[in-house]
Each structure stands twice: as structure tokens, then as C-alpha cells.
């Protein structure tokens, strides 16, 4: 099993970053590997969505059920796809005494654990997904700069 853990301090609020992460339908606009995002179901506290990846000649799709705690966290659980396991977690923490979810800076923490369902899939998809997973947080930082301006 592979594990990615990243954190970053930003001059964007926890709410701003939470809103970017939970806006799954817009992922194809800024994630270079995301060819399509389909929202299957909006449910109390989250969504079930399917992401289609197309990167370096590899095409695959996977579905996750995301449970959201407004302005605080997103928990990602595998529904189906080329993985035997895929679990992720985003946390958005306001920074500073006066900071709230709506104002001030924040710290983002991101964790993702994944394993592929068989060795053949792992051989083909793992190098691509490893690259995607390692640059995921940076992609959202760039999106924040694009949407909210450089701070």
C-alpha cells in the first residue's frame, strides 16, 4: 500500500480551500489528469462522484463517496475502480488568533492511502497515480491563486 501525506500553510481561508476541494464538478478545469468528473449523488454531508483520469496514455475511472464537514474536512472512501483500497482525508485548519473558517490563513493537511486491485493494474497505473497523488495539494494551491488571486 502507498501513502501520501502533505501539509501546507496558505494565505487563503479554510472556507475558500474547502470550497475548492468540494467543487468536484470543476476538477477537469484545473487538474490536468482529470478528463471528466461525474456527480452521481449528492447526499447529506457529501457526494458520490466518479473521476475519469487520462494521463500519460493511461485512462481509468474510479468512484468515491466523499463525506464533508463544512469548512473543516473531507473524507474520501472508495466505491469502485482499479483499487483494492483508496482512502483519503483533507483537513482545513484556520491559523492565527483572529482566523475563522471564513477569514485569515489556514493549514491544509492531506492524506491518501491506496493499493491496486492486481499487479497488472499496478504496473500500468501506479506510476501515473503516484505522480497525481504527489502533486494533488499543489494543484489546489494553484487553483486558489487562479480563483482568489495571489496572496
Structure commentary:
This protein has 151 residues and is α+β, with helices and mostly antiparallel strands. It has a single domain, classed as Alpha-D-Glucose-1,6-Bisphosphate, Chain A, domain 4 (2-Layer Sandwich). It has helices at residues 14-22, 27-30, 119-148, and strands at 2-10, 34-43, 46-55, 58-69, 73-80, 83-94, 106-116. It has a 7-stranded antiparallel β-sheet with strand order 1-7-6-5-4-3-2. The radius of gyration is 15 Å and the shape is globular.
Search tags:
3 helices; globular; 28% helix; Alpha-D-Glucose-1,6-Bisphosphate, Chain A, domain 4; 48% strand; single chain; seven-stranded antiparallel sheet; 151 residues
How do you describe this structure in short?
By secondary structure, this protein is α+β, with helices and mostly antiparallel strands.
Strand content: over 45%
Total tally of structural domains: 1
Helix and strand sequence: EHHEEEEEEH
Order of adjacent strands in the largest pleated sheet: 1-7-6-5-4-3-2
Structural shape: globular
Structural class by secondary-structure content: alpha+beta
What do the pLDDT scores average to?
93
Tell me the helix content: 25-40%
CATH architecture: 2-Layer Sandwich
Give the secondary structure arrangement, pairings included.
Elements: E1 2-10, H1 14-22, H2 27-30, E2 34-43, E3 46-55, E4 58-69, E5 73-80, E6 83-94, E7 106-116, H3 119-148
Antiparallel strand pairs: 1-7, 2-3, 3-4, 4-5, 5-6, 6-7
Helix pairs in contact: 1-3
Amino acid at each position: 500500500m502507498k501513502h501520501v501525506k502533505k501539509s501546507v500553510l496558505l494565505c487563503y481561508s479554510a472556507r475558500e480551500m474547502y470550497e475548492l476541494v468540494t467543487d468536484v464538478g470543476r476538477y477537469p478545469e484545473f487538474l490536468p489528469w482529470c478528463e471528466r468528473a461525474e456527480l452521481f449523488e449528492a447526499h447529506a454531508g457529501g457526494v458520490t462522484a466518479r473521476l475519469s483520469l487520462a494521463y500519460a496514455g493511461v485512462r481509468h475511472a474510479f468512484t468515491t463517496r466523499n463525506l464533508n464537514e463544512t469548512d473543516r474536512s473531507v473524507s474520501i472512501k472508495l466505491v469502485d475502480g482499479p483499487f483494492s483500497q483508496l482512502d483519503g482525508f483533507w483537513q482545513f485548519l484556520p491559523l492565527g488568533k483572529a482566523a475563522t473558517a471564513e477569514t485569515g490563513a489556514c493549514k491544509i493537511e492531506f492524506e491518501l492511502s491506496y493499493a491496486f486491485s492486481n499487479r497488472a493494474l499496478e504496473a500500468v497505473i501506479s506510476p501515473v497515480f503516484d505522480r497525481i497523488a504527489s502533486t494533488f495539494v499543489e494543484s489546489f494551491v494553484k487553483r486558489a491563486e487562479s480563483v482568489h488571486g495571489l496572496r
